[in-house]
Design goal:
single chain, about 110 residues, Rossmann fold, four-stranded parallel beta sheet, globular
């Protein structure tokens, strides 16, 4: 990873994303990290399940940059583009197999 200087982690407040963010923070201090997450809210899918599970507490102590935004939003994508990452770790996902909003699921997961 010696040529990678800027990294984006989507879904950074989730279990995997937050552990990855903390790993970079603790072990690869020369890499700038932009942690992107939609964060938990009361927003729900039509099946009644929450749309986002990421919790800010998972990023407590993280010293990189944190950006609150939905990766399906043009403003968030512009922020990521402006950051100009060398690598993106895409951890944002809808893992609920009962979600019927297939378009949103595909946009988010792909």
């Amino acid at each position: 990873m010696k040529d990678i200087k800027r990294v984006v982690i989507t879904g950074a407040a989730g279990f995997i994303g937050s552990n990855l963010a903390h790993y970079f923070d603790e072990n690869l201090k020369d890499v700038e990290v932009l942690a992107v997450d939609k964060f938990r809210s009361d927003e729900k899918f039509s099946n009644g399940n929450l749309k986002s599970f990421g919790h800010f507490k998972n990023l407590l102590g993280f010293s990189g940059e944190i950006y609150e935004g939905d990766i399906n939003c043009a403003k968030t994508l512009a922020m990521i583009e402006k950051f100009a990452p060398d690598a993106i770790f895409h951890e944002a996902a809808i893992s609920d197999t009962t979600v019927t909003e297939q378009g949103e699921l595909m946009r988010t997961n792909l």
